[in-house]
Write a structure and sequence with these properties.
Layout (H helix, E strand, L loop, with lengths): L1 H19 L23 E4 L6 E5 L9 H14 L5 E3 L2 H5 L15 E3 H11 L2 H12 L2 H14 L5
Antiparallel strand pairs: 1-2, 3-4
Helix pairs in contact: 1-2, 2-4, 2-5, 4-5, 5-6
């Protein structure tokens, strides 16, 4: 199971790294480029993996919050510093410091689940309180874990 999660995370990180090396040209600026369908999101990019050619983009050069990319990196750092059978406790800070209405799994203060269950919660539910609890478990507090994530991103060659 750990190998499957590792392969999935590595695939996402390779795609992210490839995206940082893509030439920044809006396809709509290319003569005779077909019109793309309208997307509801604020920004998007579709890249042909073998050549790095941008096939579609919307606000490609605009910065957005990393959202799900953060969840992937959180999971990668957790897997590198914890075992899947470790027990993760949910503190008041982990549960109640998330924005109201944000993605969560409904965990409550004092509950405990395994690290493996946490990683599923992070990747499947985008559960913010679970990510906080994992951060506290791995690093002692959320800020220290963020520092670990930034170090890992830099090691992978990620920027911006």
């Amino acid at each position: 199971m750990k190998k499957i999660i590792s392969v999935i995370l590595l695939s996402f990180l390779i795609i992210i790294n490839m995206a940082t090396s893509v030439r920044a040209v809006e396809p709509s600026q290319i003569e005779n480029w077909p019109m793309a369908p309208e997307t509801a999101c604020g920004g998007a990019v579709l890249i042909e993996a073998n050549t790095g050619t941008v096939l579609y983009s919307k606000n490609m050069n605009q910065r957005f919050y990393p959202a799900s990319t953060t969840k992937i990196l959180s999971t990668l750092v957790a897997m590198e510093h914890a075992k899947l059978d470790e027990t993760v406790d949910f503190s008041t800070e982990a549960v109640f410091s998330i924005e109201q209405g944000s993605s969560n799994m409904g965990m409550d203060v004092g509950q405990q689940i395994t690290m493996e269950q946490c990683l599923y919660g992070i990747l499947v539910y985008s559960a913010n309180e679970v990510t906080n609890a994992v951060a506290e478990h791995v690093a002692g507090d959320i800020d220290t874990f963020v520092g670990m994530m930034n170090e890992k991103a830099a090691q992978l060659g990620c920027s911006n």
